[in-house]
Amino acid sequence: SRSARRIARGDYDQQLPDTHRQDEIGQLQDSFNHVQQSLTAYIRQQRQLQSTLKERGQALAQTYENAKQNNKVKAKFLHHMTNQMVEPAELLDKSVTRLCNEYGDMTLEEATHEVEVIEEESKVIVDLTDQMLSTAQDQTGKEEDAHE
To answer: Residue 105 above 90 pLDDT?
Structure first.
């Protein structure tokens, strides 16, 4: 009965005394001993599982934080690159609009200048776009390497 009270309080690790009795009390004590050992093993298993889940949860939380940080960096990068394209796009638009609207009244030199501006600003936008794509490919390669 003392052993049953200890187990009821949660003390599963203490061994029950062995019995050499062959009667019903001895059989009951043996069965109780098996129950206690099974409970001990089960609780040990549950604690290990809880520990493993806690470690994995912490690792997932860290991975999530890293992903959030990476997304912030990507957003800042894209915002920066997009801002870099504003001025060339405006100059490109201005030159195309002027060329379309005023072509008949322009000198050859003025038309050539507008075409040169269009070419230069288009090259700036293409270079910025290439830079973004290159950075995206580099980042994708790093992420794939990290997952392997």
So the answer is: yes
